[in-house]
Every structure is written in structure tokens, then in C-alpha cells.
Design brief:
This protein is α+β, with helices and mostly antiparallel strands. The chain contains six helices and 19 strands. The N and C termini lie far apart (45 Å).
């Protein structure tokens, strides 16, 4: 197939298969439509191919029956298929680029840029809301959190419905959800688990969040598993990059508080000499961190979350 099936036909159905998103990239899909008209919800996973928790959660959604469903659930469970099979961290093996940094993409660009362009031009305009599931890559641990485009109240509403306790107000360019926001589609990224690990609890946290969003959108009747809190804590996040390559020794654990100016960790050489000390520019707490001993220049070391007042 070179095009996805229509998302709205007015008939109860399940369509599954593979679509050529680009000439040289085929990805799996499922379109699940209920008999009653309702919103069209897009769920993607595998933007980062080794975040297996998110992929397994999306694969379980593919099996959702259309009975009692209002509207359409569209699932693209493994966008970065080669990275999934090769256990590649962050990047698409075809071009070495991070798919979640190249949106809105380019029609004549590299593999990741063309895939991003396909999503932005052919899929996003056909949906009403968007959930991009992530799971903590092979080299990172994290506290479960969601991200939403800064200033999008509809997206914050999705984050509240999804039910993770922390929501990051995210700006910047290149991300799936920011590109969706620019074409009028509210969306969030949901992060659960870490180091590529998955089990029923972590996968269940993602699928339960999707169910809550579907209830929020009046796509399913419920009941659904309640979130632990009514609204997430809204934060902004500061992410220091590694100034040099070397061995990474973090000084802080997940959720641990940090003061501005406090040392977050050190990068050393193989003989233990300190090459760089990383001070925090912000106060807050550790939301995620690099868990690998090796680090390359420019790679993200950790995320410091700072609560946003008034949210």
C-alpha cells in the first residue's frame, strides 16, 4: 500500500497492514473505527526504535476491538522499523538522524526527514488528537512524564487525562508534537520505563493512559482506571549536553532535588582525570538521566525539571 485507508467511513471495521510511508520505508498500521462518529485519535510508537515499552503498548492497542468505539483509533506502532530490529539508540540507521528532532521534515530530504514530512502532510491533517508513546531508550532512565507543546491548553488537557504525574511544557523545533500543534492537532509525548525495559506494569501504564484519553475524548464509555492525581505537576526542563566525550559519572539520582549551581556529575577520562564538571543552571529535580558509562560530546546528560508557577 502507498496510502493509509481512510480514517472515517461511518462503518465499524478493523484494517491492518503495511504502508509505504516513503519509497524505501514500509511501516505497520492499524485503523480501528467504531460504528458511531467521533474523534480520530492517532497513536504512534517506535519513533525511537529501542524504546520497547512504548512499542509493546502500541501493539496491544492494535488488538482493540471496534465495538463500543466512537470515532477512529489509528495506530502506527513502529515508525522507526530498522532501528527497532537493529536495537539502535535514538537515530534512524538509514541516515543517523534522530527522527524526533527533524520535524516537520522535507519531501526531498534524508530518510528520517521524508518520514517526518509524510506524517505531517498526510497523517496529522486527518486526525483530531495525537499520542506519541515513548519508553526510555537503552541508555536512559526516567521518572514517568509527558510533554506537551508550550501554550497548548488542549494538549495540556490530554496530558492531564493521560494521567502521568509530571507534564513538561516543551518548546523548540523538530519534535512530533510541536509539528502537530502547528497544523492544529493537540498532542503529547508520554514517557514510561527506561533502558529499553518493558513489562506488564510499564506497558500497562501507557495503555491505561491511552484509555483515559479515549474516555476524555468521549471515544469509549468507560469505566477506565483512574489516574493517581487530577492534574499533573507542570514543569519546564533544562537538558545540559556533554561538553566533551568520556566517561559519565552522575551525582544525582532520579527525582532527587538539585539547587542551581550544584554539581550534577562529572565526565572523566579512562584514568579518572576529570574532563568536565556539570553544574546545574536550574533548581528543581532530576527527571531523567543518561545511564551509560560512555558519553559522546553533545549528548544529553540528564533533565532537570523546574515547576512552573501558576500551573
Amino acid at each position: 500500500m502507498t496510502r493509509l485507508p481512510p480514517f472515517r467511513t461511518g462503518k465499524r471495521r478493523v484494517e491492518k497492514g503495511h504502508v509505504h510511508a516513503t519509497d524505501d520505508l514500509e511501516i505497520p498500521f492499524a485503523v480501528i473505527e467504531g460504528a458511531q462518529e467521533g474523534p480520530r485519535l492517532l497513536v504512534t510508537a517506535g519513533v525511537h526504535g529501542s524504546e520497547f515499552c512504548s512499542i509493546e503498548a502500541a501493539l496491544r492497542l492494535v488488538r482493540k476491538p471496534p465495538e463500543n468505539l466512537k470515532g477512529t483509533l489509528v495506530v502506527l506502532p513502529i515508525l522507526n522499523t530498522q532501528a527497532f530490529m537493529r536495537r539502535s539508540i535514538y537515530v534512524m540507521p538509514q541516515d543517523g538522524k534522530n527522527l524526533n528532532r527533524v520535524f516537520p521534515g522535507k519531501v526531498d530530504g534524508t530518510a528520517s526527514e521524508r518520514l517526518a514530512h509524510w506524517l505531517v502532510t498526510t497523517v496529522y491533517p486527518e486526525v483530531d488528537a495525537y499520542l506519541d508513546l515513548h519508553g526510555g531508550d537503552l541508555d536512559e532512565s526516567l521518572v514517568p512524564f509527558s510533554l506537551f507543546p508550550n501554550g497548548s491548553e488542549a494538549s495540556l488537557g490530554l496530558a492531564s487525562a493521560f494521567g502521568l504525574s509530571i507534564a513538561v511544557s516543551a518548546g523548540g523545533e523538530g519534535y512530533t508534537i510541536n509539528a502537530a500543534h502547528k497544523v492544529g492537532v493537540p498532542g503529547i509525548i508520554a514517557e514510561v520505563s527506561g533502558n529499553g525495559l518493558w513489562d506488564d506494569n510499564s506497558v500497562g501504564a501507557l495503555t491505561a493512559g491511552v484509555q483515559r484519553v479515549m474516555k476524555h475524548l468521549d471515544m469509549i464509555p468507560g469505566p477506565v482506571q483512574a489516574a493517581a492525581q487530577e492534574r499533573p505537576q507542570v514543569v519546564k526542563m533544562w537538558v545540559p549536553p556533554a561538553p566533551v566525550a568520556g566517561l559519565w559519572y552522575p551525582a544525582k539520582e532520579l527525582s532527587e532535588p538539585v539547587a542551581a549551581g550544584e554539581t550534577l556529575g562529572e565526565i572523566r577520562d579512562v584514568f579518572g582525570e576529570v574532563l568536565a564538571t556539570i553544574p546545574s543552571q536550574e533548581s528543581g529535580f532530576i527527571l531523567y538521566r543518561l545511564t551509560s558509562l560512555s558519553v559522546n560530546k553533545g549528548e544529553a546528560l540528564l533533565g532537570v525539571a523546574t515547576p512552573v508557577s501558576g500551573k
